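Whiteboard transcription, Tuesday session. T.W. wrote the structure tokens on the left side:
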């Protein structure tokens, strides 16, 4: 055989070539076999040994599980008028696992939807970074139909963002009863740590204040679950399996929105609080704290500028005055003190004292509101004309601890346990209270002003409402409540020594409105139903011993507060009215009589 060089190959050379070729074939075969065995081993590893794990991962790329938020329970008034409901809105939901650069994404979104508020982007970017990947992240802005349509067409440009329709809380009456209802808002990190994460899966809102917070567990409901199949772009192809959510329960309140709106319009420009209750069962028919604010602004996330404006408003619209406003009760406590004094036989209701317009005690002159005095007065006259001097004298016989012990059962100095969060306690002073609070001894001069509801004495409007209801009930104590279905605790009874004593005090309160000497007569002389009540005034600042009060020279902010408590009709009362007007240029008694008249003549027969 010729060699490539032209020479013949020897037999030995031919054998060497065949051996080399065979070796190369065997090496190639071995290499191919090795690769095949590696591939086979990998397939076995994936298909046999870790099938469940990788099958689940593969399915996860195609099938996702989403929580379905429950429909929040609605809130109605006593006549089934909607106070808080839900309405469908368009929103953008962000998936944190599919968005790498949130800043760029938001920039492009802002270009597409230029009407989105610019300040929301920075807030959302910060919230997005801190958010859990296991919870839905909604952009805090409700899209219009036009914006929703524009985004739907361009959805392919935004992987990780989906357009969804959801139910959003809304309050059809705006500011009306806002401090009773409260509002819902976005769940913050502190709240998230306190709730059941399984129950709040798919939910981004929670009750913040008022009934919305108090009855959160009732209103919220339970989430559902759905499996959805998506394509490579994240678009939903089909829903595979769904477990429907359980809607929250509706709540019916004792409020009458007609009475609520009437009172709010009557006191529209005032800083005031009004509570109207049914004294027989504690149902709250009207709950007014003015000024208020629109809770709808909080649902979607209130802007920083709007929230700051509310915080800096001198009239403090965010304060729930009914349960957190603390005021000296003034002369509204005089009937309760008088009742305690005659029940404890400290004084006879017929005993008269002479009022020259002041009382001297240890060189200090404690003045009556009427400079020339009331002359000879007994207990009836002292309540009807609100004679301070009578009660100054009475304070020396009773002492602060007896005054405390007689007022405490009516609800002063402790929570009423109304079904709302964050109720204030107020102050019902005593020797023990001052020692604990200030580390000081109690002085008799402090008793003299405490008995007319001044000094350290502070109460909330809801405490006054409970107290006047208890008096109207002849000592039967009922808990004020908003929820019609709220369980009523066992009623308690203030011990009665002589029923005639209660009759005499209530009769004197009737004459406050019925006879010309009464402090509320000029407001009530035209009403066609019997009403009992007591006026009160509490000072914003104190006068010196020889100073005179000149209302015209005072700033509006320094004017006295005007108060009134009352109930009607006198026999078998149906409503109790408590009114507190801050820095009043109108009288609480006038407003209370109008409220009672509206109820008795407009609403009474319709409820």
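and on the right, the sequence the group agreed on:
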């Amino acid at each position: 055989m010729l060699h490539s060089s032209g020479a013949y190959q020897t037999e030995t050379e031919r054998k060497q070539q065949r051996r080399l070729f065979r070796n190369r074939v065997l090496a190639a075969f071995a290499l191919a076999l090795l690769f095949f065995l590696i591939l086979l081993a990998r397939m076995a590893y994936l298909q046999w040994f870790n099938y469940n794990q990788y099958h689940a991962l593969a399915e996860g790329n195609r099938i996702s599980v989403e929580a379905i938020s429950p429909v929040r329970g609605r809130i109605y008034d006593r006549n089934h008028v909607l106070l808080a409901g839900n309405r469908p809105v368009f929103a953008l939901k962000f998936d944190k696992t599919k968005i790498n650069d949130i800043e760029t994404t938001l920039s492009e979104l802002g270009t597409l939807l230029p009407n989105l508020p610019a300040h929301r982007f920075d807030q959302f970017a910060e919230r997005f970074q801190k958010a859990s990947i296991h919870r839905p992240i909604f952009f805090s802005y409700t899209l219009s139909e036009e914006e929703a349509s524009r985004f739907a067409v361009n959805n392919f440009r935004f992987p990780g963002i989906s357009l969804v329709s959801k139910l959003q809380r809304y309050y059809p009456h705006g500011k009306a009863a806002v401090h009773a209802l409260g509002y819902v808002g976005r769940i913050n990190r502190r709240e998230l740590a306190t709730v059941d994460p399984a129950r709040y899966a798919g939910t981004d809102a929670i009750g913040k204040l008022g009934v919305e917070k108090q009855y959160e567990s009732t209103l919220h409901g339970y989430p559902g679950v759905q499996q959805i199949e998506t394509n490579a772009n994240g678009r939903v192809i089909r829903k595979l399996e769904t477990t429907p959510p359980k809607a929250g329960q509706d709540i019916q309140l004792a409020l009458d929105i007609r009475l609520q709106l009437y009172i709010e319009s009557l006191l529209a420009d005032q800083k005031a609080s009004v509570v109207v209750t049914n004294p027989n069962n504690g149902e709250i028919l009207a709950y007014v704290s003015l000024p208020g604010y629109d809770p709808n602004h909080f649902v979607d996330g209130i802007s920083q500028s709007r929230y700051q404006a509310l915080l800096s408003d001198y009239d403090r619209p965010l304060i729930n005055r009914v349960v957190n406003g603390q005021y000296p009760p003034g002369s509204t406590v005089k009937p309760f003190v008088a009742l305690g004094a005659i029940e404890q036989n400290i004084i006879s209701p017929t005993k008269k004292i002479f009022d020259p317009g002041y009382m001297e005690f240890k060189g200090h002159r404690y003045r009556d509101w009427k400079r020339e005095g009331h002359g000879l007065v007994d207990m009836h006259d002292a309540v009807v004309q609100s004679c301070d001097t009578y009660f100054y004298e009475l304070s020396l016989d009773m002492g602060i601890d007896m005054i405390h012990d007689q007022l405490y059962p009516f609800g002063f100095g402790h929570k009423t346990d109304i079904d709302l969060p964050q109720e204030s306690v107020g102050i019902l002073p005593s020797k023990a209270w001052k020692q604990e609070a200030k580390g000081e001894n109690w002085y008799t001069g402090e008793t003299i002003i405490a008995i007319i509801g001044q000094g350290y004495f502070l109460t909330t409007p809801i405490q006054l409402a409970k107290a006047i209801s208890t008096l109207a009930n002849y000592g039967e104590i009922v808990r004020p409540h908003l929820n019609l279905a709220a369980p009523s605790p066992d009623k308690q009874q203030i011990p009665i020594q002589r029923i005639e004593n209660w009759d005499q005090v209530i009769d004197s309160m009737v004459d406050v409105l019925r006879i010309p000497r009464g402090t509320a007569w000029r407001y009530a002389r035209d009403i066609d139903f019997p009403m009992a009540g007591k006026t009160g005034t509490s000072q914003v600042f104190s006068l010196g011993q020889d100073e005179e009060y000149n209302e015209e020279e005072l700033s509006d902010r320094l004017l006295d507060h005007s108060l009134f408590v009352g109930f009607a009709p006198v026999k078998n009362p149906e409503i109790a009215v408590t009114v507190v007007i801050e820095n009043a240029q109108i009288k609480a008694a006038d407003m209370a009589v109008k409220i009672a008249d509206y109820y008795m003549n407009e609403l009474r027969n319709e409820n």
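Someone added at the bottom: The chain has two domains: 75-252, 257-606.
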